[in-house]
Amino acid sequence: MTSAPNDWTQSAPAPDEPVIVRDKRRIDPQSGQVRVEAARTQTASPAGDTVTSPAGVPPAGEADQVASLRQQVTERTSDLQRLKAEFDNYRRRVERDRQALAEQAAGRLLLALLPTLDDIGRARDHGDLEGPFKAVAESLEATLETAGLERFGARGDEFDPLVHDALMHTYSAEVTRPTCVDIFRAGYRHAGRVLRPAQVAVAEPAAEDPDAGQGADGGTAAGAAPEAGGGSAEAAE
């Protein structure tokens, strides 16, 4: 009867030893949230599930995946290069079209101003281009020249059917090739395109006199005629 109390007294902890209580509940009773340590314990994979492979050798299936990714990168790079080339061609084509439209619009405007330039030229030839009108005319001509309008057609120019419109044609011993000897109306071009051909008179080198050759032949024929006639008379005798 007296030994039981003694055994309980020896197994009991000392009065000054601290009591440690560990709360292993997954749910925090105060916040109602899953505790971080518990979540980590559940998501951690067992040590036995880890797959290892020899050093430098990718796991099975990873090599095929890498090859597939490299092929996809090559295909995407090729597609990107093709799209870039197509875009560059499109941009150059749009720029050419835009420039062509601008030149055509400017050409139409300049073509409408050519009669005014003709009037200015006639007034200058007759000595009527004086005073304020002269200043305005010269300013207009300078502005149009800056815009790219080019005048052509002068005496002594070689005749070119692509830019000259021949209204008269003569022969002259003073020229060695078809030459513009008179200008009736100047021609104009813009951006390398002829807006209006120049109206000119053309002279070509003088050809040999065709009557000279015919005269020589005629003389020979005339000399042969009496001989033929003489022969006929002798035959008649």
Automatic annotation (TrEMBL):
Residues 228-237 have a biased composition (Gly residues). Residues 1-12, 40-53 have a biased composition (Polar residues). Keywords: Chaperone, Cytoplasm, Stress response. It is found in: Cytoplasm. Residues 1-70, 202-237 are annotated as: Disordered. Residues 19-28 have a biased composition (Basic and acidic residues). PROSITE patterns: GRPE (PS01071). InterPro entries: GrpE, GrpE_CC, GrpE_head. Homodimer. Belongs to the GrpE family. Participates actively in the response to hyperosmotic and heat shock by preventing the aggregation of stress-denatured proteins, in association with DnaK and GrpE. It is the nucleotide exchange factor for DnaK and may function as a thermosensor. Unfolded proteins bind initially to DnaJ; upon interaction with the DnaJ-bound protein, DnaK hydrolyzes its bound ATP, resulting in the formation of a stable complex. GrpE releases ADP from DnaK; ATP binding to DnaK triggers the release of the substrate protein, thus completing the reaction cycle. This is Protein GrpE. It comes from Protofrankia coriariae. The lineage of its organism: Bacteria, Bacillati, Actinomycetota, Actinomycetes, Frankiales. The gene is grpE.
